[in-house]
Amino acid sequence: MAKDPFDEILQFLKPDCRIDLKHLSLEHLLDITGTASGKEALLKNEEVVRTIIDLTDDCEIISKTALLILVNITSDAHGATELLKYRPHNKTNVVELFLGYVLDPKKSHADAACMILSNITRVENSVKVCLDTFIPHLEDLLKVLSNLNYNQCKSKLNYIAPLFSNLSCSARFRKWLTEPSMKQYPFIPLKKLIPFCNYVDSVIRRGGAVGTVRNLSFDTSYHEFLLSEDLDLLTYILPPIMGGEEYDDEEMEKLPVACQYYPTEKVRDNDEDIRRMIIETLNKLCAKKHGRETLRNNGVYYVLREYHKWEKNPAVLLACENVIDILIQKEDEVGAEDLSSVQVPEDMEEKFRKMDEDFLNSAP
Side-chain half-sphere of 42: how many Cα atoms within 13 Å? Predict the structure, then answer.
């Protein structure tokens, strides 16, 4: 039986091994995990993987490389699922270990630990497995995200936002996000997250915040809360799709106050995925009569009318047109109070899908 080449590397990863040899060995493993075949091969050697996890708490240069190896390993669903099976010393799972790194203000390379958590939670089944580990620390994570200078080693921790987006596939997380927290003082967690929908310094943080709102919008039971005056959601999700266009006085008065009278140099978000998620969110919020009327009363049609003139991506344009088609109708023309409950016959659903495909394929 051929000897596992990773077993030879193990001797250079022991705690008492010289740092330079340890670092060279980890750099080699980092290169290997840059390929799918390399990741698969490494995951078969549990002792090496366990040693790499332990080395994330070594000196700075060793810790950094070990963390980056695990970022690579968790970059696909299989690797993320496999890593979640490990139980570091005195920890429930690796999530507990990396949460500790993220919440430690003195931890170097906490960004890499944050990326690992974000990667792991992209797998929906993994969220179910590790949610109990996250729940006691959610408020702490939100405070870290809200404090831009939390980490003393200059880690930005932007990946907490997509981590929240991933967790929002869980009903328990959505409940926490939308109800007053009583741990120290009452506040609604989502209110602290949505301002990052416009955070210009990080597309990762913006995308995570918008993605969380989008996932919430798939659950119609939250629509009235999302569109409540207290939350003021439209103030945060409309600006990324707004430019510096002029509106007439009647149209301008309908817009949320914070979205009125933008300067002519105002630009839209340059990230296509973020714009698409916002349009998808508006689409979902049109499911019920209350949502449609709220969007109409806040001038969303006018915003989308101008946005449609600007957007070039065919898929986003199609999504935008779908929302416009709903908003320009009067309620008696819509035909249902709750569009999400309307059953579309299979033959018609296939016909609509084919029409969408033809539109996208015909786009220049």
Answer: 30
Query: Would you say residue 180 has pLDDT above 90?
Result: no
Q: Which two tokens stand for residue 39?
A: 């990741």
Please choose, from the candidates 139, 156, 151, the residue with its C-alpha nearest in 3D space to the C-alpha of residue 190. Answer: 139
Return phi, psi of residue 105, to 5°.
Answer: -65, -15
Helix (H, G, I), strand (E, B) or coil at 314: helix
List pLDDT tens digits, range 44-80. 999 999 999 999 999 999 999 999 999 999 999 999 9
- Judge whether 70 and 29 are in contact, CB under 8 Å: no
The tokens for 15 are 């705690």
Q: DSSP assignment, residue 338?
A: B
pLDDT band at residue 89 under the 50/70/90 scheme: confident
Radius of gyration over every alpha carbon of the chain, rounded to an integer in angstroms: 24
| Largest CA-CA distance found in the chain, in angstroms, rounded | 80
Residues pairing with 181 in the sheet = 187
Torsion sign, CA atoms 84, 88, 90, 95: negative
Domain ranges of the chain: 1-73, 87-217, 232-335
| 248/233 Cα distance (integer angstroms) | 23
Mean pLDDT of 243-260: 96
Whole-prediction pTM value? 0.90
Q: Is 208 helix (H, G, I), strand (E, B) or coil?
A: helix
Helix-, strand-, coil-residue percentages of the chain, each rounded to 5: 65, 0, 35
Query: For residues 199 and 206, is the Cβ–Cβ distance under 8 A?
Result: yes
| CA–CA distance, 75 with 166 (Å, rounded to integer) | 14
Domain covering 87-217: architecture: Alpha Horseshoe (1.25)
